[in-house]
Amino acid sequence: MNIYMSMALSFLIGGLLSFLIKYLNQKGKNSAFLEEINKLEAEKQAAILEKETSVEKLKSQFNHDLEVQKKQFTLVIENKKYKYESKKNEYYTFMAYLDVFNNVQMKALHDDFWPVITSYYQADVTGLQKKSEEKSIEFNNKCLLALSKFREQQGILFSQVNGLKLSASEQVMQVISELIEEIQVININFQDLLEELDSPDFQFQQVLSNDLFSKGQNEQEKITLLRENLLRVMKADLDKL
């Protein structure tokens, strides 16, 4: 009986030991498996965190680059706007001086010259010496004053050209150069007119040569055409900005 009990007890203990060993082995495997799972989870979380951090960095860098580009774009726009407004004002100013010059020229011819010329020669044909001398002095003074106004306005107009050289396009400066040449021709014709008015032939006939009239008309037409062409090239230059 004792032998059987001892054997049974031995089998029981052996079974328990075997079960315990298997249990511990399985528990060890489970622990290792759990540790592996936890490790993988930790690696997963670390990868997710790294990715999220990378995404945030990319977003931050993108926003930074976007702000930099926006500032650069704004600066470019403001710079172009400043150049456009500055050049536009320079062009407007020059055209305004050109119009004033043309007005002074026309006023000198029609408002200053012809009335005093008419008055002078009407007085001269009366044969009254004193009155004729007074009219001669008035005539000479008027001529000098008109010529002075003409040259003063011409000088003001020419001074504007120097400022335009710094910013105007080559096409604009080319047309302005042609315009200046025509104005200088007008200046010469203006002086020729004064010389003819003071000539004995004119004092005797009181008729200006058709050559002077045709020259003056031709030059004025050229000035008008050049002015229109100048406006076109100025507008084209501004549209490029």
Write the SSE topology.
Layout lengths: L1 H123 L4 H36 L5 H28 L2 H6 L4 H30 L2
Structural key phrases:
241 residues, mainly alpha, 5 helices, 0% strand, rod-shaped
What does this structure look like?
It is a single chain. The chain is an all-alpha fold and 241 residues long. The chain is 93% helix and 0% strand. It has 5 helices and no strands. The chain has helices at residues 2-124, 129-164, 170-197, 200-205, 210-239. Helix 1 packs antiparallel against helix 5 (210-239) and helix 3 runs antiparallel to helix 5 (210-239). It starts with a helix and ends with a helix. The model is unreliable at 124-128 (pLDDT under 50).
SS summary, helix count:
5
Quick one: overall form? rod-shaped
Output mean pLDDT. 76
For the secondary structure, the number of strands is 0
Quaternary state, please?
single chain
Summarize the structure.
With 241 residues, the chain is mainly α. It is built from five helices and no strands. It has helices at residues 2-124, 129-164, 170-197, 200-205, 210-239.
